[in-house]
Amino acid sequence: MLEIAHLNKSFSLGGTKRVLDDFDLSMRPGEFVSLIGPSGCGKTTALRIVAGLLEQTSGTVTIDGSVSTGPSRDKAIVFQHFNLLPWRTAIDNVAYGLELQGMPKAKRMQVATEYLDLVGLTESAQKYPSQLSGGMRQRIGIARALAIDPKLLLMDEPFGALDALTREHLQGQLARICQERNLTTLFVTHSIDEAIYLSDRVVVMGVQPGRIIAEFHITMRKPRGDYNFRAEPEYAQVREDIWRLLEQQIVRAERVA
Amino acid sequence: MGAATAAPVADASSTPRGRSLADRIWTRRNGLRVLSLVTVFLVWEIWGRANPFFASYPTAILGASGRILLPEVLPALTTTVWALLVGMAISIPIGVMFGFAMARFRLIEIALLPYMNAIYATPRIALIPVLVLWLGIGFELRVTIVALGAVFPIIINSYAGAKHVDEELLDTGRAFMASERQLLRTIVLPATTPFVFAGLRIGLGRGISGVIVAEMTAALTGIGRILISHAKYLQIAELFVGIMVLGLFSLVLFDLLNRSQRRLTPWAATDGT
Question: Where in the sequence is the domain holding A42, given as residue range(s)?
Answer without folding.
Answer: 1-74+150-230
